[in-house]
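Our example copied in:
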Amino acid sequence: MNKKVLIVEDEQLVAYLMENYVNNSGCSSVIGSVDNGNDAIEIAEKEKPDYILMDVRIEGDKDGIETALSINKNLNIPIIFTSGNSDAKTTERANKANMIGFLVKPIKQEELVKLLCNKTS
């Protein structure tokens, strides 16, 4: 069964690339792609994805970590964060948000597929 993935990314080209990675993973498919926290919360509540691929810096008044924390007040959706910034403060904040992975941009397809498909090799 394909796992449902919501992409939250404000850079259109990066979102498109991640959507291709997810849809070609063999284990998951994208159910939506948005660029801000409010839309992400709305879709997560309605669609209940299996995973959320969340950029740390997104459009709107909430960043990706705040958005993930809001989503997981009512839902328990594993988050895979993406960011060009992997400093200790950012990763520490992300750890509080049901994070199962933190991928530094540029995203490598094999790293993303490994997290989504739970591959160990």
